[in-house]
Amino acid sequence: xxxxxxxxxxxxxxxxxxxxxxxxxxxxxxxxxxxxxxxxxxxxxxxxxxxxxxxxxxxxxxxxxxxxxxxxxxxxxxxxxxxxxxxxxxxxxxxxxxxxxxxxxxxxxxxxxxxxxxxxxxxxxxxxxxxxxxxxxxxxxxxxxxxxxxxxxxxxxxxxxxxxxxxxxxxxxxxxxxxxxxxxxxxxxxxxxxxxxxxxxxxxxxxxxxxxxxxxxxxxxxxxxxxxxxxxxxxxxxxxxxxxxxxxxxxxxxxxxxxxxxxxxxxxxxxxxxxxxxxxxxxxxxxxxxxxxxxxxxxxxxxxxxxxxxxxxxxxxxxxxxxxxxxxxxxxxxxxxxxxxxxxxxxxxxxxxxxxxxxxxxxxxxxxxxxxxxxxxxxxxxxxxxxxxxxxx
Length: 393
What we know:
The chain is α+β, with helices and mostly antiparallel strands.
């Protein structure tokens, strides 16, 4: 009899590949510690899917060899994992759910949820449409505005239009918004490609740099003296659980990739690199102080957006605050370390949190599958004679 497993999918063809590996390893160890039979799925930078027993230790990914891994394959319409060798596929496990740990492109943007949906596999992240919208900062901003959620003003420019007249385009941006301006690739995460320009020449260079990562770029006024907060939300037994907003500590004009992931107190603080390295980082111990009115406002916004957009799984909301005014900056549907530390300070005990995500993902999948998927129609059987020969050559 074949195993029944939970997939943990990480890596991928994305600038956030390495961060995704760390999140994936953390999740693999957390779920194995909770007694789940886990099938780690590593997606290479080329898009190939592999598994191996050693995928519970980040150090193993520093010197990977395809010969030490087994190639995986999945077929649309089947919730079965196959080993792939040459052209031969060997089924070896049923898949009852999947945890999406793929940050950025092809994971967080709705591609992976869509693929697994067609394989009848429940997944612990928002569905394709919601994921795609929230991965695109411009579309997300439009949705937030339609809900009356406060966001920064801004404009989206496309690469082709910008390069028609660079000088005029940059001058128009300065006339409209002034300086300094913040430049962001529209569909990227982890602060990659984001910069703040204080002068005209720097703005031109910032836009050109951002276009190396994405064909669309967002331009926003750059706040000075602001604070940045993050809030994580998920569902447990159909009830919404909202973490306490955590204030970040950026050193520069942008909360940088290094500050988010390489420094103490960032999103990966306390993340386990192996089964034996699970000590929580002091920077991410749960804050027990009372919630301020400002933090309460953030929680209310999180609740409204999560419910209005029909989200599922753990989602991290990022806010900007200046002079007691808050702005929703972006939403991460596959957050670093799955934001476990908002709810559990010890990663050794985070398995229960990951199990809650799986239960909710299965519930959402069953609810969706209960909807009517067919409609009684006589269109095909009624085609005959001349109509029945439509399309023939």
